[in-house]
Amino acid sequence: MDPRPDISDEINDLLVAYALDALEPAEHERVRQLLAERPELQATLDELRATVGTLPYGLTPATPPPELRQRVLDHAVGRTAQPAQAEARTGQMAANLRTWLFGLAGLAVALLVALITTLGQVGGLQNELATARQQRDQAQLIAATAQASAQQVAAIVAQSVALADLSGAGGQGTVLQSAEGNLILAAELPPLAAGRVYQFWLIEGGAAPVSGGVFIVGDTGYGLLTLDVGRPLVGATLAVTDEPAPGSPGPTTDILIVGEVVG
Amino acid sequence: MAPNELALADLSALSDEALLGLIVQREEAALGALYDRYAALVYTVALRITGDRQTAEEVMQDVFQSVWQSAGGFQQTLGAVSGWVVGITRHRAIDATRTKRERARNREVTGIDQTTLPFSSPAADAGVEQYALSEAVRTALADLPQNQRQAIELAYYGGLTRVEIAERLGEPLGTVKTRLRLGLAKLRDLLRPFAE
Predict the structure, then answer these.
(1) What is the pTM assigned to this prediction?
(2) pLDDT average per 10 residues of sequence, chain A (263 residues)
(3) What residue spans of chain B are helical by DSSP H?
(4) N or C: more exposed end of chain B, with fewer CB within 10 A?
(5) How many CA atoms lie within 13 A of A194 on its CB side?
(6) Measured distance CA(B130)–CA(B108) in Å, rounded
(7) In b/e form, how buried is each residue of A145-174, taking b as 16+ CB within 10 angstroms?
(8) pLDDT tens across B88-118, in order?
(9) What was the ipTM of the complex prediction?
(10) CB-nearest partner of A168 from B83, B106, B134
(11) How far is B1 from chain A, CA to nearest CA, in Å?
């Protein structure tokens, strides 16, 4: 079942790899020479490339978020996104979160909330404080973990402004800023293994990640964390990893969800 | 009718090539129409390669910016517009993944957890022809031996060369070449009615 039984395996291999864009850079010239010497190979290559071109249609379709359309078009034509569009986006984030919470409330499912206000008014996120904060995270995790109803959480969210969407193969989340200035992370993540916690990280510029606290998720997969960083975090990267309880000085596993604070 | 008088309904009826022609003339509505036509496919491919929604959205921006800037360079003799757009997507997504390796480590290149993705119904969003193609491709891929499918996916979605695939899998280079050759040949035979 070779692409062309009448040509050698070596040439078939080259054409197949060329069609799949899997050649080493130095091998491209070899294919160009072949096509120049044997023009009839072009038809075989075209057929292979057409086959390769069907591969994306085998994927399960994913739907881009509706608000992405205008952002893409603005970017394409070099137009700066309007503030109203940015507001619409953050509004969409909050709407998404409220949708989660509404669903939870409708199911009368208690949301496990880790209300951990650990950082205090620090005025900065100096790396040298990370270890101390981590220790505070660890000490307060168990004591501060509490049950709260979805309605209570929804009330907090209703008064908050969305700052960032976090996404990744591991789940999704939203970071909001409350009327009091606290950051609120709401995340939907898989159940944790025994002895593990989720840890929230703040990354500014090229600085090392600083812990923003640890949290767990309830049976529904939802977890919540609040913290007070005391200053704006525009442009900061926010991420969540799965760490050994009661937390780690720095990330020790791959990032599960990540996002950036929008302006 | 002048291009700037075209309504969206008119644009949606135009061929891909006609839309590109309007894009060359800086008709933004044509870019919007092309977006509406291919956004789901571009996003699906970008998400498959990057495994990350945020990066996939950034890739979307780069892809349509590239279409806007280089529509005049499209050569119909080298294939369909859909293949051109998907090709841009694939390269941008692979580049983005290489740049953001900390994100790429979150997933195996051969298997993003599709259950976490926001699905849409192929039947609802695509025409009958595309739905048939999707089903045919899925069936054909499922029909391949796993190691052949894996090698093809590592090349196409992972952006790996044959040598890199061999290193990744710990297999001899000759074995990888054979898997790619036999796998793609079988796909070609199964999908010939759909391949352009």
Answers:
(1) 0.55
(2) 69 94 90 92 90 91 91 88 50 54 41 35 37 43 37 59 78 78 80 84 80 79 74 79 82 85 70
(3) 8-12, 16-24, 28-50, 53-70, 81-99, 101-104, 122-125, 128-143, 146-156, 162-169, 173-191
(4) N
(5) 0
(6) 28
(7) eeebebeebbebbeebebbbbbbbbbbbbb
(8) 999 999 988 887 654 444 444 433 333 333 3
(9) 0.81
(10) B106
(11) 23
Query: Which residue of A4, A11, A12, A20 is the best one to mutate when testing the B interface, meaning the one whose CB has the most B CBs within 10 A?
Result: A20
- Taking alpha carbons only, the member of B179, B131, B156, B108 closest to residue A1 is B179
CA separation for the pair B48, B92 (Å, rounded): 12
Query: Given the structure tokens 């491209």, which residue do they identify?
Result: A28
| Residue A196: both structure tokens together | 């593990």
Other CB atoms within a 10 A radius of the CB of residue B176 amount to 28
d(CA B26, CA A78): 12
Structure tokens at B141: 């891929």
| Encoded amino acid at A167, one letter | S
Handedness of CA A190, A191, A194, A200 (dihedral sign): positive
Q: List Cβ neighbours of B91 (8 Å cut-off, separation of 6 or more).
A: none
Q: Are the beta carbons of A165 and A93 closer than 8 angstroms?
A: yes
Distance to chain B for A62, nearest Cα, Å = 5
A-B contacts at Cβ under 8 angstroms: 204
Question: Diameter of chain A by CA atoms?
Answer: 76
Strands (E), A118-195: 145-148, 161-168, 171-177, 183-188
